[in-house]
Records
---
Amino acid sequence: MDLQLSPDQIFMRDEARRLLAERSGSEQLRRAIGAGGFDAALWSTIGGELAWCAVAVPEEAGGLGLGAPELALLAEECGRRLAPVPFWSSACLAAPLVAALGAGEAGAALLGRIAAGEAAACAWPGIGGADPLCGTIPVARRAGGGWTVSATIAAVLDASSAAFFLVPASADGGLGLFAVERPAAAVEPLEGIDLMRPAARLVLDGAAASRIDSAGFSARDFDDALMTARLAEAAEQVGAAQGALDLTLAYVAERVQFGRTIASFQAVKHRCAALLVEISEARSLVHGAARSLDPLEVAAAGVLATQALFRAAEEAIQLHGGVGNTWEYDPHLYLRRAQATAAVFGSTDEKLAIIADALLGDAA
Amino acid sequence: MSIEAFRAEVAGWMAANLTGRFAPLFDRGHAGDGDALPELRKDWERKLAEGGWTCIGWPREHGGRGLPVAEQVVFQEEYARAGGPGRLGHIGEGLLGPTLIAFGDDDQKRRFLPAIREGREFWAQGYSEPDAGSDLASIRTRARRDPESGDWLVTGQKVWTSLAHLSDWIFVLARGEEGSIGPKGLIFLMMRLDQPGVEIRPIRQIGGGSEFNATFFDGARVKAGDIVGVPGDGWRIAMALLGFERGLSTLGQQMGFARELDLIIEIATENGAAARPAIRARIARAWAGLRAMRHMAMRMLADHPEPQVQLESLGYKYQWSNWHRDLGRLGMDVLGFSGAAASADPRVEKLRRLFFFTRADTVYGGTNEIQLNIIAERGLGMPREPRGPSGKGA
């Protein structure tokens, strides 16, 4: 009944933390900006050598068969260092989607590729629900013995590093899940808010696609299959909030004004302390929701984690003072992550509405 | 016995006993209502004792049942779920008892522990003083040794002595060494309240109730054998006692919070407030905060919490007290104008009490400001506040 991490989980998390402290520091992030927000060497370590993407892939598909709690721990560490790799897109979004909706050989083959460190991205307008500003719902058509998919999607996260795309599309009057290989897609990188999770416009013009579900699924099924990704996003936000707090604590401990470090001022101490409480609250909910995957708890985790990250990033800028507003210092990288993730699966008010509808009945 | 069987046993006992003459106690006597129905609640404590439900976590050799943490948590949850009344025996069972078990001598254990366990003697706490609130170490109440009897004679004033007017005994932190300052020279005394030299005056709170008192000592006597530890040990023992307070009662408290939120939801659904988007969002946010507290408690109550969790647990009091204060306001906003005056509906009265009492949540047991200092200094390693001459504090 308690929420104690197992020794294996603690080991995995601590190893991830150690690796990313070494490989995803400020200098490396700066280099990644120049490389389109992607660190290929780090990805080959994480995705390839260390097989982080295999964590939640079922054993029969070549994975470790662990679950959301482990993914959440790794996502939290990635968030803390804003690791410029498509771990969330590939391991937390694409893999659970294939595991939930995919079938047979085709599904298992894709899971095996993800587990082996090939990056996958999910192409869906708005990801959580169709948003006309984000593009039109992809359409799949039968062609010969196979399928083609056509779509224009305004922004696909981690598209540039993807080896293949997962595309939910309308097919035969229902919904189907399709895989499109990278060479069949036109990928146009965009200037995104989040410098560590790049976005690109994706154009599929009758692209050859393989269908990986067996007989279609409902929009509700699709939404349910995103639960792990929602949870992992919240975990990543908690980690990023912690990263912003780490940064702030280090800065205020060194910055001297009026003959003392600004960390010694109670106004500064109290704000850092209140942040820790907020982060801890969100982290507790993420850890609990990772075990239940209860939709209400996952929504609640998203609400608290979004708020914690926003506040941590804003406080990081404020407590860094003037330099917090410069490109050279890192706080803005966290503010960017805060804004970019705030509505990935619906805004805070939409998440609160999910909870309110369950507690109070649907709004009139 | 499995944990679920234990849960059923507690629930069954509560259902069978919180009824008949005890029915008026349903959901009474909690924070903000702590002085309600005192005589019946003392009888209830004896009823609990007969059923074997007092001091269940104390070691067997001291008359407890030695139940593990999981069972104690279940008891707290089921007690709260059943609407069990606020525990008048809490200070004896949860604070003084564990302190005596840890630091008391055999004679003290023999004299005091059975009376606590059986609901025969009730305790009050004498820590804060008018000039020693957050800065507890600056207390001035004096204890002087009477050379003839060896007893201690106590002079001074304590405040916020919870339920002292309903108690038999009070434990008192006093300055036992003339001229000492700060945490040095303090003594931890156990004093009978029913004696000349002790005067108890109620303090009326903002909600109208009087759970707290100011207690005055004018040469009040403490028997030579009724000090815990030795003179000079007072601070160490007083701090250890506060450590016993944390933790286990948390989940029972959360069960109470959940019932309050349920009540707010029930009223909002009845009176139409549930149709208002801002109220819906606030109720959803309150639910999220409560689930976060639940999981936080589950992390803290692990057998071997990680250092990271121990550090985060410093923020738990700040977390729940602010959440609860917000809930108090939400309750009134859901009531709307119907909350503005006394009501025949006990649910309305409950929310009105909640509104006022939750203002104290962010003050007692360490104010918000002290909590943030503790979190910043012990949790984040930030520089300590400069100290005045008393030299110690949070």
Note: Residues 121-216 of chain A form a domain with the Butyryl-CoA Dehydrogenase, subunit A; domain 2 fold (CATH 2.40.110.10).
---
Amino acid sequence: MNAMLLLLADSRLPAGGHAHSGGTEQAVASGAVHDVASLAAFLRGRLATAGLVAAGLAAAAVTASGAGWAELDAEADARTASPAQREAARTQGRLLLRVARRIWPAPALDELAAAVPSPHHPVVLGAVAAATGCSPRDAALAAAYNAVTGPATAAVRLLGLDPVEVHRLLAGLAPALEDTAATAASACAAGESARLPAHAAPALDLLAEQHIRTEVRLFIS
Amino acid sequence: MGGNHADHHHAPDGHGRALRLGIGGPVGSGKTALVAALCRTLGPSMRLGVVTNDIYTTEDADFLRRAGVLDPERISAVQTGCCPHTAIRDDIAANIDAVEGLEERFGPLDLVIVESGGDNLTATFSRGLADKQIFVLDVSGGDKVPRKGGPGVTTADLLLINKTDLAPLVGADLTVMSRDAAAVRDGKPVLFTSLREDRGAHSVAEWVTGLVHDWAHHHRAPAPTTSTA
Amino acid sequence: MTAPPDRAQSERAQPERALSERARDDRAQADRAQAGWAHAPGRAARSIHARAAVVAEAGPGGRTRLTTLRSAPPLTLRQTGPERVHLVSTAAGPLGGDHLELDILVTEGATLELGSIASTLVLPGPGRSAMVVTAQVAAGGRLTFAPEPTVLAAGCDHAMTVRLALHADASAYWREEIVFGRHGETPGRCHARFDATVDGRPLLRQEFTVGDPAVDGSPAVYGDARCVGNVLVAGPGFTHPEPGVAPGRAVLPLAGPGTLILALAPDAVELRRRLA
């Protein structure tokens, strides 16, 4: 654990994350998420799928360079079947990269921007983590944390849930976050980006595609 | 792949880019009507772009597109995740992205207007997003609003008090509003208008034109060839 | 709410779980008996390792010939048309411990359609069962892989692996359906991994997990669906469906040269309808 990781994972990092709900807005609209218990089930499933995938990609990005950037970004594409989710991931990645290049200037970030103009968010997250001296496991933990905290906050705003209750739920997820980061880091240590976690979440795909076609929405994703 | 826009993002000092004008204010005060009016008046002589932050996503953008005051492609909508003030103040990344996207697609531009989603009196634009900002109030909120102050009222580069035609109906005293605003604004300008009657917002357009000329002069952007109506 | 939400939820689910576990044990016993009966005596005790293969080649005049058709019970392959093969299961299972492999090669310009006669019922046994399908489609080749669903019986522990390697000019229509138990049955565990590449570049990589408490019933993963399915349409040889979304179904244009039809459904019949 280091101070840079705290800054990087903080929702106050001004990189546009606050306007993404990661499918929560649509899950609330459909009634699938309606209270703290259903939010808990939503977040656990999200962490075990999209969260683990993001964690693996972020961990791998810590050691990426050169042609590895485009390769890793293509691996992210292949794990994101929904075009709406690819767009959301690339938008968030682009914003994070732009902000990070001002906060933590590093040749690797310039190299990534040159190789992939709007990379998937986890790839950028890993690259920024490396620029700040974080390990692959740190990067994976930040990605896993992002995968649940943004949606949890969105649920608080959309459903008026008790924020303390929701944070208690997040605290309960801490061991799962650690496990996810460890799994991702060891998958990444195997060295082959093709073998990184690829856990699909069909319901998230459906929610994302419904959301992007919804006229009235408060969140980008 | 060298020519990507991450590499072309503008220096924070504003050189080589358009003036960014924020328009904020409470819900229903007339922000979108002001944007439409400015587009109507300035559109013929300036290269414009508009970013809207309506809380209901594309509603404002759709209004502007329907109003036919600007090429719909030049209007970009940003979702703010229930927090319009966050998107213009604390985390401006999505708005910067939208502004730079417009400049990249249609640039060079003279002026990019960023309209905030309707919010409360404490909402102001970050200086990282808007070079200048207008705060829009309307008289129906009561003539005490300027006295209450708040960062929007006190720090905006221009305070616009709209719907003056309603003043007699809601019992608002414009003299009081003018006096109170002057007291809290330290000499910064206050304008009164009725956008329903002045569909070109000519006094505001004139003020904006002055800003754009100054901006172009100081930041070596191509100067607009212009006069306001 | 006084108890942490997770615990409250699991407490509510307790009585139901106890019942379904009893039902699962009964059914698993019946399954073991049936598997022993369906195959040779001692079947349940000895695991099977089997590797079947089919090779489709374009012969003179562009007609496809099946130059290899190697069955390996329980994977029995029957030619049912000039370019068509069906998998005919000649034993129950796979059972836990079984390791089954199917290799498919469609060479340049050839066409192959592969289906199955019945759904695959994955049963428990001593250890994990595995099904590995490796398919390669060369330039101008066209592969349809559309077997009946894989049904996960109670207590099973199954791994499904698909490696689909396509040449840039190859085409594939690949269907995969997983049913979470027979009617009213709580499924065992399953991990499925699907990797499709085009000229070595990744097109689609997906893993599905069933039997993980974090995932089962999560509104982010399967919701209240009882089955999940995919159709991957890749390459120029098939009509790609129009992008769109409907209840329980989405048509997703991939970043690479493919389209994925994705569906969740309450039952296998509805799943098939949504994947059509």
Note: Helices of chain C lie at 5-38, 268-275.
